[in-house]
Amino acid sequence: MAPPSPDDPTVPRPLLAALAGVVLCLLLPAPTLAASFRPNVVVVGYARASAPATARAAAIRTPAGPVTPTRTVRLAPGVDVRSAAARLRRRPGVAWAVPDYVAHVAQAPVGPPVPASLAPLIPNDPGRTGVAGGWQQLQWNFAGPFGVNAPQAWANLTAVGRPGGAGVTVAVLDTGVAYANHGRFRRSPDFTPHQFVRGYDFVDDTPHPDDHNGHGTHIAGTIAEKTGNGIGLTGLAYGARIMPVRVLDSHGDGDASTIAAGVIYAVRHHADVINMSFEFSSDVTAAAIPELTDAIAYAHNRGVIVIGAAGNEGAPEIAYPARARYVLAVGATTEHGCLSDFSNDGRQLGMVAPGGGADASTLPADANCHPQDPAGANIYQETFLGSSTRVFGFPPGYEGTSMATPHVSAAAALVIASGVLGPKPSPEAVIARLKATARPLGAPGDGSRYGAGLLDAAAATAPGGPGAVVPAPAVSGPAPVG
User: Fold this and answer.
1) Which residues pair with 101 in a beta bridge?
2) Beta strand pairing status for 37-46 and 94-105?
């Protein structure tokens, strides 16, 4: 989604005049900031009656009203972005003007991996062993003692004729996905073409959302890697379809306006769940990213569930966009059942899921936490080995709230497909179900560190329980005569 140039005739002349005034008034260089944003770009939101025609055309109407019409405007080189935004906010008809803040993948740096424990055998996927069921040696997060109880969840969905969450679409907003063979890109060998619906690349503005990093393919694998095919590893919602939406570049960074466009695209193209495994810097607030919070509200109003990564600073507050209203914020746990040492927590935390890494050292009363011991295993899925987009494997180094988030997105897809909440459950109903069926973790008083608890995909998809819709009993008529 390229911003218009000041030379673009579609940019209103009064706005260009305002920008020219900003150029003349600025004498000092911009200060160094912890939060990063795109240079020379301001995102402008207009009061609807005052919006330029192109911005009005881009507005989206929701059940709660229209999303604010927005445009991105490019500044002259050297113009201080914050000052330009402040100047624009004083213009008549401008609702808000903000820098285009940049998010980054919520993946923590790691040391050498530690082998995980074996788990019960269900599918025949071999992992790296070459033996049926070898996936268990790597995927503690699915079937280990502090995994999400995937095998029973798979049985639950098979029993109702929706194996792996068939019929549900999950949009992966990320660095792209290795979903197809074309040019220098190859589809991951543990995906098949029919597992994907049409997506888009909002970074390069093309209809081919190929992965330029590997992060997005890893996330998509946790959600829906092909399962039971004798290849690679398993995916929690292996029957769901993935909508790849590229909003992060090859470095794992993406600006708020591009991410907002990706959210809107996912909603318009009928995604049921949106996965956001990235975070903004801790000093970015909701007021700094109004275009994205508007888009998230639009998704919620259209019945789409939005799941986000809590962040990797080990801080007592959640990073945006997971902290935004209508987003279920997901923290990370280790294979020992402790909060991961990098995971953010706090009262806005919704729940936790496996993210790997070392145990947190700030929970002395938690019997599952042993920070003095070696770190637990990472999260494994099939993605790029190194920088090549053509060579795949199970690389170490993937741990973070990025990795925890797709477990919850996949579980949300399974809950929808299971029918336990009825045919078209609301986002509120699905999120309430996931929280109500989570496993408690921690010592008394640790609730804000783990949210509702550890995701349990089996309990969430089992018949009955919190929020379940009980089918009405059949009503029999009079007995036939004769």
Assistant:
1) 37
2) antiparallel
Per-residue tokens: 377:
């295993």
Q: Name the residue among 460, 439, 437 with its Cα closest to residue 450.
A: 439
Under 8 Å between Cβ of 405 and 275: yes
Tell me which residues are annotated as active site. Answer: 174, 215, 402
* Digit-coded pLDDT (tens) for 42-91: 888 888 665 555 444 444 433 334 467 888 888 888 888 888 888 888 89
337 φ/ψ sector (left φ>0, alpha ψ -120 to 50, else beta)? left
Q: How far is Cα 290 from Cα 268, in angstroms, rounded to an integer?
A: 19
Q: Using DSSP, state whether 58 is helix, strand or coil.
A: helix
Give this prediction's pTM.
Answer: 0.81
Longest dimension (CA), the chain: 99
The DSSP secondary-structure symbol of 456 reads: -
CB atoms within 10 A of CB 219: 34
Q: ∠ CA(46), CA(202), CA(18), 5° rounding?
A: 30
What digits encode the pLDDT tens for the residues 231-246?
999 999 999 999 999 9
Q: Which whole-number Å values give the CA distances from 286 to 173, 281, 317, 344, in the listed order? A: 19, 12, 14, 17
C-alpha closest to that of 276 among 260, 297, 294: 260
Answer yes or no: are the C-beta atoms of 140 and 147 closer than 8 Å.
yes
Q: CA torsion angle for 130, 145, 151, 239 (degrees, to 10)?
A: -80
Place of tokens 């294979």: 335
Compute how many other C-beta atoms are within 10 angstroms of the C-beta atom of residue 270: 12
Nearest to 203 by CA among 163, 233, 174, 182: 174
Distance CA(40)–CA(42), nearest Å, equals 7
Q: How many CB atoms lie within 10 A of CB 480?
A: 5
Residues 6+ apart with CB under 8 A from 357: 108, 110, 332, 334, 340, 341, 342, 375, 376, 378, 399, 400
Hey, how many other C-beta atoms are within 10 angstroms of the C-beta on 27?
Answer: 6
- Higher-confidence position of 97 and 33: 97
Count the Cβ atoms, other than its own, within 10 Å of residue 464. 9
Whether cis (ω within 30° of 0) applies to the bond prior to 321 is yes
Give the strand order in the sheet containing 273-276. Answer: 200-201, 241-246, 169-174, 273-276, 305-309, 327-333, 351-354
* Cβ-Cβ contacts under 8 Å for 135 (sequence gap 6 or more): 123, 125, 126, 127, 142, 232, 233, 234
Distance CA 201, CA 174 (A): 10
Name the percent of the chain lying above pLDDT 90: 65
Question: What is the rounded distance in angstroms from the CA atom of residue 37 to the CA atom of residue 58?
Answer: 23
